[in-house]
Amino acid sequence: MATGSDAGKSAEAVLEWPKQDKKRMLHAVYRVGDLDRTIKCYTECFGMKLLRKRDVPEEKYTNAFLGYGPEDTNFALELTYNYGVDKYDIGAGFGHFAIANEDVYKLSETIKSSDCCKITREPGPVKGGSTVIAFAQDPDGYMFELIQRGPTPEPLCQVMLRVGDLDRAIMFYEKVFL
Question: Could you say which residues bind Zn(2+) here (predicted)?
């Protein structure tokens, strides 16, 4: 569904925009209770790569960046572990990340056979459509939508946030990212 400034544009024009625009999201930061457990989940279940990791003992935290390609060309997840904190409240505003994959059924089986993540929605067509999706939950409770799509250079393809006023949120993001 086209909204905001895309509402009057053709599908071709909307699809052409990413080829012309050089701005992009770099990474999303969130906190985890056990960094090594989460790295294992993302690398073994989702196929991400550990891009870099740094410990900052004077500030009592460790960061790890994971993704599907180099940070200079791909979106990454920045996981932060704060010393001594093993659990966080995710809150009501965060929805999920989405990962595009050519075979969601196979990816779901990989996740089910692991001991670090779980499938919370079995693979199948989205309600009212034909796109195959599934949902997985990481050890900290963060959700990942698995979307069946053809090959893509950017598998980590969406971040879903819940907003109280959709029109206001659209105007905000259009101004920030244009």
Answer: 78, 96, 145
Q: Is residue 132 part of a domain?
A: yes
Show the domain range for 103.
Answer: 24-177
17 — pLDDT class (breaks 50, 70, 90): low
Q: Is 44 annotated as a binding residue?
A: no
Residue 4 has pLDDT above 60, yes or no: no
How far apart are alpha carbons 22 and 151 in whole angstroms?
21
Is 47 part of a structural domain of the chain?
Answer: yes
Residue type, 163: V
Active site residue 12: no
DSSP 56-73: ETTTTEEEEEEESS-TTT
Question: In 3-state terms, the chain is what percent helix, strand and coil (to 5)?
Answer: 25, 35, 40
